[in-house]
Amino acid sequence: MDIGIAVAGFLVGVVVGLTGMGGGALMTPMLMLFFGVQPLAAVSSDLVASAVMKPVGSLVHLRRGTVQLSLVKWLVIGSVPCAFSGVLVARALGSTGSEDQVQHVIRIAMGIALLFAAGAMIFRAYMSLLERARHRREAAGRPDAEPEPESGSSAAPEVKVRRVPTLLIGAVGGLVVGMTSVGSGSLIIVALLMLYPALKAGQLVGTDLVQAVPLVLAAAVGHLLFGDFRLDVTTALLVGSVPGVYLGSLISSRAPSGLIRRALAVVLVASGLKLLGLGNVALGWTLLAVVLAAPALWMLLRTRHGFAPLASLEGRRSR
Fold first, then answer.
1. Domain limits, the chain
2. N or C: which end of the chain has fewer CB within 10 A?
């Protein structure tokens, strides 16, 4: 067993427990870039490990009542068959060439998926800022209005399901997950946010985690049968990631998840660009520009919508 992979799995597990996302988006590129695991083997092993981790978070949300089971049903109908066939699609894309060509196709698909996931996280954060600004404006016109709960842990009323769009979200998300192991969190949850804007963040996360269980299981079975599953890699991932997820879940209520999500977005961008073949020098300058420009832009957006430039300052004032 590779101790380095176990340690990496533990760190990623903590991030998943804290933020609810980032498993495939972080672990698969990490296996490829730092441990030299071939892309298809990295996807296969990570998906099998995720099939063990995902039920942990979903059980928590089911107990808290933050799951829209009506949405889960239609997402699963679309995602499960597409997730199972994702590995076959990856194989078919390279069927006319060598095994190296298959790995190259998966590497490119992974890079695109990671950049999309990073953009999805940024979009989700901006939509959350707009929602808070809207609630603040409404509360200003009603002095007796109750403050909006931060956690969104209370059960939400059932939403009116838009069956065809929801099924398509599941199908596209399942195909991407089956090919790259990325998307069961970041991609699908943002698509749900755009389709069902009335759902709160906690309910979006809970719904996505529950639907991700059969999705990841289907993709894992497909990779066990037709992929390049490696037991030694998966074992090392599980040894590290399972206690990591448990620890992350325990401290998630106290940890600065916003900071974790920002760091996760940077890692997603870096991994995606690297997988797409960007050189080290160009990658370094790109990340430096992102790290310097993104905080200033975010503070400008917060100020424009009536919030303190820094969330920590806003928290101190509220206390």
1. 3-278, 279-313
2. C
